[in-house]
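Q: Hi! First time doing this. I have a protein sequence and I read that you can turn it into a structure. Is that right? Here it is:
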Amino acid sequence: MTPSMAVDSSKHAGLQRIEDFGFPVLASADVIARAREIAERTARAREFLGSTLDVEPELALLVLAPGDWEGRASHPVYGMPNYDGGGNLVVAGAPSDFWRGFVGFVAEPQPDALRLLLQTYAVDGEIDLSPFFDLLAVHELGHRFHHVGVVRFPRLWLMEFFCNLGLHTYIAEKEPDALPLLEAFPAAVASVSAEHVQHSDLATFEQLYDRMPPQNYGWYQCRLHVAAKHVYDAGGRDALRRLWDRFRLVEDDLASALREVEPQLARLPIDWAATGNATRV
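A: Yes, that's right. Below is the predicted 3D structure, encoded as structure tokens:
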């Protein structure tokens, strides 16, 4: 096992600690029940990914209400899951306007996608995206893994792809009943064509990353998650380990490295450009 890096506990003050986990779980007082559910999945994913990648990182999970977000999260928008670089996985414990904004994002350009969201996430006729966003603690866990494992991805999009692949692999292998909750949202958002977003090419993603409009950033993430599903379907659990191993080494030829991981992954930049956003990545 690779040695773990210590967790920055400076953001933990003022939160309630939830016991019985192998890592600190801190939550706002009014989201304790939800925090426990998210922590249980995070613990299972940590064990699964640890056995897959031969790393067992120290970490802390922070599940926050809106009033506790500022000063603890590394992204200002409430509901945007994030990893702070100091071992803290930060997620929202209550529905956010950021999440709700995706309903309008897909409604006009893709009415079929809106129907998919309704079929999957409707509660009393209203779309509640919480079941999807609650899964994203595992995505943020992926950032902790590659940080501790000193995996150097040559592109930000590839780093985010790794985290999406880790999330998809975990759910497919250990919680397959949750696959519809995981897959419907990315499929719906990714179906919105590039002409409906301000930024769409991978080069711009490298330049702006999470400084672009939040829904636009989410569109990129959803397209990367759909790609992760395809790579998992082609290569299974082993694709995640191959991606991990390949980028623990320095590699100048990105295309060659991607082909070694999984031929399906090597097509991602090509297929992206084929949608009308040709660019070097």
